[in-house]
Amino acid sequence: MPELDLTASSLDLTRTICDIPSVSGDEAGLADAIDAAIGSLGHLEVYRDGDTIVARTGLGRAQRVVIAGHIDTVPINQNLPTRDIHNDGEAYLWGRGTVDMKAGVAVQLKLAAELAEPRVDITWMWYDHEEVDADLNGLTRLARTRPDLFAGDFAILGEPSNGTVEGGCNGNLRAIVRTHGVRAHSARAWIGENAIHAAAPALGRLAAYRPRDIAVDGLVYREGMNAVRISGGVAGNVIPDLCEIEVNYRFAPSRTAEEAADHVRNVFEGFDVDVVDLAPGARPGLDAPIAQEFLAAVGGEPQPKYGWTDVARFSAMGVPAVNYGPGDPHLAHHDEERVPVAQIDAVEQGLRAWLNGG
Amino acid sequence: MPELDLTASSLDLTRTICDIPSVSGDEAGLADAIDAAIGSLGHLEVYRDGDTIVARTGLGRAQRVVIAGHIDTVPINQNLPTRDIHNDGEAYLWGRGTVDMKAGVAVQLKLAAELAEPRVDITWMWYDHEEVDADLNGLTRLARTRPDLFAGDFAILGEPSNGTVEGGCNGNLRAIVRTHGVRAHSARAWIGENAIHAAAPALGRLAAYRPRDIAVDGLVYREGMNAVRISGGVAGNVIPDLCEIEVNYRFAPSRTAEEAADHVRNVFEGFDVDVVDLAPGARPGLDAPIAQEFLAAVGGEPQPKYGWTDVARFSAMGVPAVNYGPGDPHLAHHDEERVPVAQIDAVEQGLRAWLNGG
Residue A30 and residue A293: Cα distance in Å, rounded? Predict the structure, then answer.
């Protein structure tokens, strides 16, 4: 089993844990290494569930903060092992997981080892299966078996946010809009009804749709409603009897999940609409005093998070939560995924300053 | 090798040749059986090219008629061996190939054996690979190697036409209409351009399109322009950069192939249009005196043929050609393919009457 040196620099620790592949479903090796390194520290109480590891201080502080990061990645595509690269004078660590989100996890592991007496109690969570179905997510499992571990006054997810604080997240809905028809030989089309032609007004509504920009607690969330897939047709000489449009709606956290579903059904009134996936957004939660203190300590202007992350899970449990991690989210899942070394250092310093009461 | 008894009834002969499976590419067994049976007759000169068999009388008649049928079928789907069935008091032979088009071939084989001295010279053609790409069609090959064999004053294809004469055929065009965009994560859709949304006006034009009914030489051809397939999309969280609509245009034989392609390009003006398949139609050819004599002999009202058949090949060579065969074309390729026994008999009698000078 590879050993983790938690006294190494965050950069070196990022390199080490990126070079232990941990595509969703294959996190055991990395989880074992984290378990061994964290378990030997003495100042943290460790709980393991599958490949999710929870480590807590028990200092009796007035407040508790949950700091979490997933240890799985999307599939590797000839982008491991990591490499040090330079681009326009900037130093990067390149490779799968550097952005999403092992640099964030490395900073957390280093600070978990270093900060034996932080000013708040901390619950560290490193979890599996974030990049796949929500059913498989380690936090979904943990919320079922040990909901008490989620207790806290504030939560920080180390998801890539360019080293700035990104508050809340948009909700995420997927729906299938279906049109129906009647098959016939295309040489005698008038006997049938063309389901692809029937989809024309549905696509027309999407093309004409103007998404909203919505201010929530001072941050502006951009929405979006898009066809992400379309399919229909049987053969080159058959009038098609079914066309399916997969619609993805990203909605501001001012809307509940049910309101979002109603909105989609309204947009496609008269069509057969099947909502197949629905995750609520999260309000930014930056109005809580502890969040304001955090913002002041790490600096910078908070931004809205457009993509869905597990902050929504904490938000739904009543725990204000933000994203704060190194790396550009546009490069997550990208084959040229790479994290600026300076951002790893900046996030390490920001978190340390706040947790030390600086 | 199974033996064919060409003195059997057309019904029994249909049953026998249907029960020798001959899905496109696997016609050798049936071709061998036809070759052996026809080759032993004495009054026909036989030429074989692959699994296409040509048998000619050489009586020095003033006129020559080509009578042709393909011996392949679409794939079998648990509908062989054939069965005798009754439906609403009508007797049918059920099974793959009964309609398209072994009943027609059986009538031809029986008459080829029986009519040693018809009133016109006859070129019989039984050919392979009609149900697949035109490149593979036995007549395409024969037209390249032995174009002289196509010489004639009139041609009759035994394609299913409910025992009536169906003149000419519509042309057939397939085109891909593509829309383009720019990929982006669907959480930040404004960075991309949605190719599926861009397809909305193309589908709108198809939905609004009113196909023409065109009279050609006294028969009315119904046209049709239809999306037969649509596809687009990368993943559930990606703005799609490509959408492809496959359009099938069935056009009256009054339009040339190039005019049909121009029409499709006009309908989709402003879009990326790629014509991928284009077969001209065939005018009915019923104005030729020999065609009029044929019509008078077999009776009934001539109808237009909507689907494309090899009559278009003869038409393009300057030989007036019609479809005349037992079976309902709506049941061709159907899993419940079945031919009325009475139509087999009627076509046998109609062809015999005309060829005997009746």
Answer: 33
B200, B228, B235 ranked by CB distance to A236: nearest: B228
CA distance A162 to A330: 10
Active site residues of A: 72, 130
CA of A194: how far to CAs of A191, B222, B253, in Å? 10, 16, 24
Interface residue B239 vs chain A (CB under 8 A): yes
CATH class assigned to B10-169+282-356: alpha beta
What digits encode the pLDDT tens for the residues B134-184? 889 999 999 999 999 999 999 999 999 999 999 989 999 999 999 999 988
Question: What are residue A251's phi and psi, to 5 degrees?
Answer: -125, 145
A197 to B187: CB separation less than 8 angstroms, yes or no? no
Q: What pTM was computed for the model?
A: 0.80
Does the beta carbon of B237 lie under 8 angstroms from any beta carbon of chain A?
yes
Location of each CATH 3.30.70.360 domain in chain A: 171-279
The total of other beta-carbon atoms located within 10 Å of residue B39's CB is 13
User: Could you identify the residue written with the tokens 């989620």?
Assistant: A150
ipTM over 0.85: no
CATH 3.40.630.10 residue ranges in chain B?
10-169+282-356
**Among the CATH numbers 3.30.70.360, 2.40.30.20, 1.10.472.10, 2.60.40.2340, which is that of B171-279?**
3.30.70.360
Distance separating alpha carbons of residues A126 and A142, to the nearest angstrom: 11
> Please, are residues B326 and B344 in contact by the beta-carbon 8 Å criterion?
yes
